[in-house]
Amino acid sequence: MTTLTILNYPDPRLHTVAKPVQEVNNAIRKLIDDMAETMYAAPGIGLAATQVNQHVQLIVIDITKEQNDLLVLINPVIVAKSGQQEYEEGCLSVPGIYETVTRAEKITVEALDKHGKKFKMDAEGLLAVCIQHEMDHLLGKVFVEYLSPLKRNRIKTKMLKHNREIARNSY
Ligand code: QAP
Ligand code: CO
Q1: Which residue's C-alpha comes closest to atom 13 of ligand 1?
Q2: Which residues, at least 6 apart from 154, have a Cβ–Cβ distance to it below 8 Å?
Q3: Distance, CA 152 to ligand 1 centroid (Å)?
Q4: Which terminus of the chain, N or C, has less C-beta within 10 A?
Q5: pTM above 0.90?
């Protein structure tokens, strides 16, 4: 397995719209394994293919503390949603930044699993937040885009400085 490089906001590639997965083949299964390893190593609870510069509709999520319940969503579609909840979100592409975002409380999602088999699931609470956050990545949207322009610009400036530091340290 391989740990992949995660794109950092405001990298313009994070705004790429992902294409549907045509076939769940070995290349996709390898990408799933590498994304899971990358997420677990971070550690994080969710990662979209967009964040590792692979622009296909694929998400991995694991909200368990034990990191032993991987959820793979391929070509996910939200078919029902209800209610509202506020949650303080973070993102592996925006390290060190946590802000409150309002999203649906309950969702129903249809997707393909890692075997290419269609399934349907209900989610609420943190899992519902995480699925919505990761599906936004597939549309090229980062959670900071829900914030006011003032907050977003402060985060952008902070991240550009942070990214320069990283670049300088690896020089
Ligand atoms: C998305 O985020 C999420 O800033 C997944 O320094 C987050 O895994 C959905 C992380 C919260 C719902 C609620 C963030 C790791 C991980 C950081 C993550 C950091 C290190 C974020
Ligand atoms: Co994210």
Answers
A1: 89
A2: none
A3: 17
A4: C
A5: yes
